[in-house]
Amino acid sequence: MPQFTINREPVGDVVVNTGYVVDLTATTTNPLWVGNTSVIAAPIVPDIASSVFAQRFAGGSGRNMIIENVIDPSIPSGWMKQFKNQLWESEDGPFKCEVNADTGVLEFSDDADTIFTAPAGSIPIYGRFECSAYAYSGSIGTHEYIVDLGTATGSTVLNFEAYSVPDIFKVEYNGVEVINTGYRGDNGTYDGVPVTVAGPGAGSASFNKTTASPTWAKVIVEAPFTGTAWEFNLGCPGGASPPYIPPYPGTRITFTGTSTTYGNSLNGGTSFTPQIAYENGWGNTSLSLYPDFGVFSTEFSQVSSQLWSDSPPLYAVSIDDAGTASFYDHTDVIAIREGLKLIDPSGTYVSTAYGKTLIGVTDDFSIDIQMNYTPPINLYTYIVLDIASGNVTGVRGPFSEPTLPANTSTEKYIPISYSDGAGIVNQIHEGTLFWK
Questions:
Q1: Which of 273, 285, 147, 294 has its CA nearest to residue 207?
Q2: What pLDDT, in 10s, does the model give residues 332-358?
Q3: Global pTM?
Q4: 199 with 139, same domain?
Q5: Is 149 in the same domain as 216?
């Protein structure tokens, strides 16, 4: 297999076939294997002709993060790829990064315990919002928002606007429904359903947050009728300031983690501060549907890492945490695809009883769904040569960044590919790299 060949995944990630660096200045010419960021390669002598080179993930979709500094082999470093809305996993070892459902803190852990953390708001996370920041708006469908309130206590005010087409606004705190506005808007018949509203579209409601924890509430907006538009804002308890202001998507974010007691034990009892970068791109992989009939939209855009919808949102495709994908409307599931593919909804979906009733058939039917290719974000992929006295002492990578780092006397950055952010990925280097 060619070395350092670039491949692009449908979700927009770039992967690099690993390969070898040969130092022609060394007394003994041993190949150095380019592994991943958690390993500084040592000289090895492989049978190159029969070697199989695994691909290494190098980012690009905008949804991924990388722990940039190698601290210890037992501590995660390298790329972590998004597998669920609030879960990233490493390609090396049992490492994962997950958003704590209560605090919003990013927790980096192995299969034993949390190794280090990063504070809530370090990266923008789909489905988590800070209180009192701005108004959230939407259209038809049922929508859920996790709003971070912080540890402050006091009256927490929901301001809402349903306009004329009725919508319901609910708030749940600590598993209990604390606000339910009923339908707000204008009385009338909508989509054939007569609706008597509980009040005008604009209004407010509140609940009293009496404990520091949980630090979040769930806002649910039920907007079932065609032509609806709505917005809401959930204030901070007692008029406090938001617990954080998350960075705006679209630019690479770097931040620092804090080691835990368990993490320190992995590092010989010494605390450490990992340097973390988040791609923070938009990432919008669309889907194409191929049914045997023409009643559905043919392309869906991505809403989150596990949800796609048409516009206006009449139908949607989602993947649950077990990997089962569902194609549905606002009433029920039309067709289902079994199988554990948490970020890829591609495949054949088999009709449900509801789907057959909807279409007016008695026999099962299928719908094929294809994930379309998303252009990787603007980035270089590259490897790093560690240099001492002119010789290569180690290789690291592949890495990726929007700008190729400048060479130093001890580190040389060798570009492998460049993505222009518009769909073209240019191969810069392929094959064994010879250092002279």
A1: 147
A2: 899 999 877 777 889 999 999 999 999
A3: 0.80
A4: yes
A5: yes
